[in-house]
Amino acid sequence: MLSELVAGYDHVLLDLDGCVYVGDEATPGAVEALAALRAAGKGIAFVTNEGRRSGEEFVRKLWGLGFRASLEEVVTVGGAVQHVLAERRDRWRSAFVAGAPVIHQHVIDAGLKVVNGRDVPAVPDVVVIATHDGFDYDELREAVQAVLGGAALVCAGRDPIFPMPDGMWPGTGAVVAAVEAATGVTAENLGKPAAQPFLTALDRLGPGRALVVGDRLDSDLAGAAAAGLDAAIVLTGATTAAEARAAQDPAPVAIAPTLAELILG
Asked: Quick check: 236 and 257 in contact, CB under 8 A?
């Protein structure tokens, strides 16, 4: 049976890392909690700023951890980046990409030419930043040089860290902060806390009252507010109980130790 809070919503928009799972382990009771949401007929979307995997990879990971999931339910930051770049093809035709192969593919699928390591054009139209495991100083240098040369700067989120089993890892926010510090240019954020990822999820789910659930105040809570949605915070990721209780304007509609305790009560 669902908690009284969750039962009052038609859809639940879930962050992944730090909420549904941490690294390669589901959070306690999360598999049963999501099964209860489905049994109650609630719409589900997984909305993530993680730019290292494709939607198909997230689906495989979720099934591997015991969750049911479909590709249509997964809204990745790479998809949001692709959507915006495609809309701006009249002014952006080439890009330098600091990101995982899946981000490169999203940029290509948007119709832009990825110019990493090429001499022409000398300065791309836009630099796209998304953290990935292979990030190195050469990427940072090339991104900085491109922006100083006049390229626009966009990023796939501003999360400074994200939870892994061995502790916190640097996120896209840490990488883009280095580019901003070196260039004096502020990146346009295309991931959470921008409203677009949540609006994309709602477009897929259809009409109804939606609750966002995540572990971060600066992306999940703020992004939900930007999209005009309620948000609840769970404490299995980046936010402590004291930080969650102190949050104001917006404040979470609920704080729970785990996703399961929020959904099942």
From this structure: yes
Q: Which residues are catalytic?
A: 15, 17
Query: For residues 122 and 183, which has the higher predicted lDDT (pLDDT)?
Result: 183
A 10 A CB-CB count for 168 gives 13
Q: Could you tell me which residue, 220 or 164, shows the higher pLDDT?
A: 220
How many angstroms separate the Cα of 170 from the Cα of each of 156, 162, 241, 243?
A: 14, 7, 22, 20
Q: Which of 81, 86, 54 is nearest to 200 (CA)?
A: 81
Average confidence score pLDDT of the chain = 94
Contacts of the segment 2-6: beta carbons below 8 A, 24+ positions apart: 2/36, 2/37, 2/40, 2/42, 2/263, 2/264, 2/265, 3/262, 3/263, 3/264, 3/265, 4/265, 5/211, 5/232, 5/253, 5/254, 5/262, 5/265, 6/37, 6/42, 6/211, 6/262, 6/263
- In DSSP notation, 220-263 reads IIHHHHHTT-EEEEESSSS--HHHHHH--SS--SEEESSHHHHH
Cα–Cα dist 9/218, whole Å? 23
With 80 as the cut, is the pLDDT of residue 180 above it?
Answer: yes
User: 48-71, pLDDT tens digit by residue?
Assistant: 988 888 999 999 999 999 999 999
What would the pLDDT profile of 1-49 be if each residue is shown by its tens digit? 899 999 999 999 999 999 999 989 999 999 999 999 999 999 999 999 8
Residue (of 121, 124, 97) closest to 108 by Cα position: 97
Nearest to 50 by CA among 95, 20, 27, 72: 20
